[in-house]
Specification:
This protein has 133 residues and is α+β, with helices and mostly antiparallel strands. Helices cover 26% and strands 35% of the residues. It contains 2 helices and 5 strands. It has a 5-stranded mixed β-sheet with strand order 1-2-3-5-4. The two termini are 17 Å apart.
Length: 133
């Protein structure tokens, strides 16, 4: 299986820590209640064969990958703006990797409406050499 989740997480983490240092919580999985804010959770949601490039021996040459990123802020003022700033950094990283953004929208944080939440989703076609096409 072609796997790039760690590479995606590391690139996003580095870009976010360049701006926020250690003042941002990062996780490689979605959790219900982040222990710190702002918080970013990055998780590969799907990874399946790109059927047009399967070899005659049924070996995968490319996979389609979907990544979901959830962003949270609990600032008293400017939490929506903080989520958008973080989303902008992530979007730049993901596009530079070759992913296409399929979703970027605020959602109501049902557990605590005082916390701003934004969900982003990206899709990418990845080769066995781990290049995005």
């Amino acid at each position: 299986m072609i796997e790039i989740e760690n590479e995606v997480f590391t690139k996003c983490k580095n870009a976010l820590q360049n701006v926020y240092g250690d003042a941002i919580f990062l996780s490689g999985e979605i959790i219900n209640s982040p222990p710190e804010f702002p918080a970013v959770m990055i998780e590969e949601k799907d990874n399946y064969n790109y059927l047009d490039s399967i070899s005659s021996l049924h070996k995968e040459n490319h996979v389609i990958v979907f990544v979901e990123i959830q962003i949270y802020s609990n600032k008293k003022a400017g939490k929506k703006t903080e989520c958008k700033k973080i989303a902008s950094i992530i979007d730049m990283v993901m596009q530079n990797l070759g992913f296409n953004r399929t979703m970027n929208q605020p959602v109501t944080n049902i557990a605590n409406p005082a916390i701003a939440r934004r969900i982003m989703r990206f899709r990418g076609l990845v080769s066995k050499e781990k290049y995005l096409i």
